[in-house]
Amino acid sequence: MIATQQLTFAYPTQSNVPTKQFTFPDFSCADGETMLILGKSGRGKTTFLHLMALLLKPTGGSIQIHNQEISHFDSAQAAAFRAANVGIIYQKPHFVHSLSVLDNLLLANYLANKSLAKEKAQHLAESLGFADHLAKKTTQLSQGEQQRVSIARALMNNASVILADEPTSNLDDDNCLRVIDLLKTQTSEIGASLVVVTHDQRLKDVFEKHLYL
Per the database record, which ranges form the ABC transporter domain (predicted)? Predict the structure, then answer.
């Protein structure tokens, strides 16, 4: 479903600051598979995820989703492909604060040029435990509730790949396991591949397949 080969990336040089360069190990995650990418801070975990999500353009190597080479896409092609095929859960939730929780979910459909799936939004909200908050603004939600809304939004377009960046780093043990269980259950329901990048060692026993950076 998603694979990289000989992937490299270098951040632009700043004045008197050497370029930070990364070389990533080859990686693959099959259809419906779950994968945990572990590493300490500064090892390039988020950079790796952003490359797979087409938020950054690699300096070398290959990225494939659905056996399609996507590393050469320009920004417009990348945005269209990402909206249709990739769901992203950021470490810190990003919402349009002027919109309701429901409209933030439906925004994912709108940006992918898809019909607004209100029934799916309701189903996800019920499954993830925030159905009573759909009319609220996201600023009225707790941190845990915002995280669940982020998960739901990533699933709105039935993406084939879900990428999660440190989804449990700010959660206590009980909520950590609860969020990961919800994430795995929901991605399995739509048949998506799930890739989680983290330094959270609590997740090692929850995922069978690991990659260390």
Answer: 2-213
